[in-house]
Amino acid sequence: QRRVHGDRCCNTTVTMSAPSSVPMYKAVVIGATGAVGSNIVKQLLKSPHCIGVTCLGRRTTDMFDEEEGAHKMKQHKVRLDHLEEDARELVHDHNVAFCALGVGEPTKASKEEVWKVDVEYAGSFGRLCKNGGVSHISLLSSVGADISSWSYYIRVKGAAEKAVTDSCIERVSLFRPALLVTPNYRYGWKDKFSQNVLPKLSWMFPDRFHHVGVEDLGKAFVAHTERALAHPVPAAAPAAAAAEAGGSAQVVDKMHWPQFKQYFA
Hints:
Layout: E1 2-5, E2 8-11, E3 25-30, H1 35-46, E4 50-57, E5 73-77, H2 83-86, E6 96-99, H3 111-132, E7 136-140, H4 152-165, E8 171-175, E9 180-181, H5 189-197, E10 212-213, H6 214-230, H7 239-244, E11 249-255, H8 257-260
Parallel strand pairs: 3-4, 3-6, 4-5, 6-7, 7-8, 8-11, 9-10
Antiparallel strand pairs: 1-2, 1-11
Helix pairs in contact: 1-6, 3-4
C-alpha cells in the first residue's frame, strides 16, 4: 500500500485482520451494468453492512430486480458529460464509491471515446465524490497501467488512475486485473480464445498477470472496502506535516492479483 502525503510519499506494508466491526455504509457506483460493475453491485446488495447503493448511469436497468437486497438500490439517470452538475445532490450521504466505467471492447471505439469514458468521466466522478464527502473510492483499472506507456490503452488506464487520485479523496484503491474471465464471451472469437487459452498459460507469467473471474473481482472490491472501513490505515505523518507538504494525507492502494486474491481464495 502506498501512502501519499502532498508531494511526498512512502511505501509501507500494512497487515490487517479480517473485518470484525465493519460500520454501516452507503455506496455510490458508476459503471454498474458492466461485467465487473454489476458484480460489485450484487456484492453490495448482499452485504449486511451496506445499507444503500446508488447507481449513476445514462439509463436505468432491471438486471438487479431479482437480486437479494435489491430494495437497497436506487438508480439515477445522469448526463455523464454533466455528471458533477446532475449528481451533485445524490452523493452527499455516501461513504464509499466504485468506478467501473469502460467502453466495453476498446478496439470498437475511437481513441477519443475511450479517453472520454475512461479518463474524463472517471475524473469527474472522483471530483463529484470528493465534494460529496466520500472517503474511499475504488477504480477498475488494468494491469500495467502507466500514463507514460507506449500502449494507448495502458496509457489511458494510467491517466484514469491519475484523474481519480487527483480528486484527493482520502483513500483510493486501484484494482489492476489482467485477463477478465466472464460467464459469456463478450467480444467474439478473440475473447473466446483469450478466456480458453491464456488461463492455461498463466503459470508462465508473473502473478500480477493471473486471470480473474468477474464475480471474484466484484467480491474483492467490496471485501477490500469493508476491510478498510473496519481497519482504517492511520496517516503516516501528522496532519500538520501533510498540510505543510501542500495537501491532506491520502492512502493509495495498488491492487494486483496477489493483493486481491486473498478476498476470494
